[in-house]
């Protein structure tokens, strides 16, 4: 018999996320549209032991990988090569932790040989290898730009301290952890989690965050 000329379908997994603040955006709305999308694009919905690989979180996208169990399961399944492509509704359904964290997650998928596609953002697709490198390169650029902005704010703070006559020896805990705290603040990380990650006391974290917010307000007011 001649070989079957029909290539096997690509295996896709779905990541769906809803939270209490989403209003009209429901899990079933996402699932229905994403299933239609897979059929139109010629994907098979991946299975494991007969179970469809649909990963559903009902948490804020500002929560990290540890706080979103289904999100963590996505990466474990990707490591087992259970699917070839991860499809999600939109990038903010995938993550709202800030561009640096989001790009890092996408790069992890890429390193595992898993492509990604956004249903509502067709340009966010790494199915094409050339497009994949360009897209991740552009996203990485913006992530680096964000990191440089944080660094420049830190340097500006040190220069202002010197101008005010403050003695700058060993960096204070504020200067040491400012960049990390700003990133977590923008990512919506809880204060208790910030304290755990940095090793700072909870009240110290609160004080540092007040200072960051005050300095940001001053900068915005003078812009």
TrEMBL record:
Pfam families associated with the record: Resolvase (PF00239)
Alphabetized UniProt keyword annotations? DNA recombination, DNA-binding
InterPro entries associated with the record = Resolv_N, Resolvase-like_N_sf, SSR_resolvase
The Resolvase/invertase-type recombinase catalytic domain extends over 11-165
Source taxonomy lineage?
Answer: Bacteria, Pseudomonadati, Rhodothermota, Rhodothermia, Rhodothermales
* Any one GO molecular function term: DNA strand exchange activity
Q: Does the keyword DNA-binding apply?
A: yes
For this entry, the protein name equals Resolvase/invertase-type recombinase catalytic domain-containing protein
- DNA-binding in keyword set: yes
